[in-house]
Write a structure and sequence with these properties.
40% helix; globular; mainly alpha; 225 residues
């Protein structure tokens, strides 16, 4: 958890729990457009200390996407120019306890590599090792995958489709019941720290806010220098 400090996270989740839309597990959200699923990437240690106690109290389900090759280590994978704080990651006993308490564990690759640059056996391992390791160490087979950095090409998409029920990208948008379940859009909470929070994402105001942020994001990504 890197977008919110603990106090802001607690306040935003309490507001979400009191709002109208149902907050449901990821798989259920796909079957019921108009609901909200809460997901976390990477498996930071502060998920267990700061996020899960709040979610558990409020009975908000969550999916935690784990980088299996870095479990118990730190997030030392980030690419140059990607500003993410250096933080410890959950270890296998902690992940197993979270799964027993109701957290759904998904796969976030094995090494957090840019999957679009990989082929053959190297690409296969990024999908196959998390599937095997999470099931062996936790006792539950992961059903969902999240692409590191949101980057996916045809080969990576085909791998995820062969092994997982669904996969999440980072395209800013809403799931309407149609489209590719192996490149699902998501709303990054980084953009929900101001006037519009998670409780507002399905309201007219929230949709306008996210549309504006998404447009600005696409413009920035299209710039070249």
């Amino acid at each position: 958890m890197i977008s919110y400090d603990p106090d802001l996270f607690r306040a935003r989740m309490e507001a979400l729990a009191e709002s109208g839309p149902a907050v449901v597990p990821l798989a259920e959200c796909l079957r019921q457009p108009g609901t909200i699923a809460v997901t976390f990437d990477d498996g930071f240690g502060n998920f267990a200390t700061d996020a899960w106690p709040v979610l558990r109290r409020l009975r908000i389900p969550a999916t935690l996407f784990v980088v299996t090759g870095r479990v118990g280590a730190r997030n030392s994978w980030d690419q140059p120019g990607v500003r993410v704080p250096d933080l410890p990651l959950l270890d296998w006993p902690e992940l197993r306890e979270l799964a027993q308490e109701g957290v759904e564990l998904g796969a976030h690759s094995h090494t957090h590599a840019d999957l679009t640059g990989l082929q053959g056996e190297q690409l296969a391992k990024e999908f196959e090792l998390p599937l095997r390791l999470i099931e062996e160490r936790v006792g539950k087979k992961p059903r969902a995958f999240a692409y590191p950095y949101g980057k996916v090409d045809a080969q990576a998409r085909a791998r995820s489709a062969a092994l997982y029920e669904t996969a999440c990208g980072t395209v800013m948008g809403y799931w309407n019941g149609q489209g590719d379940v192996h490149d699902l859009p998501r709303l990054d909470t980084y953009y929900l720290r101001g006037a519009a929070g998670p409780a507002d994402v399905l309201s007219g105001r929230g949709r306008r806010w996210m549309a504006a942020r998404g447009f600005a994001r696409r413009v920035r990504s299209g710039l070249s220098f």
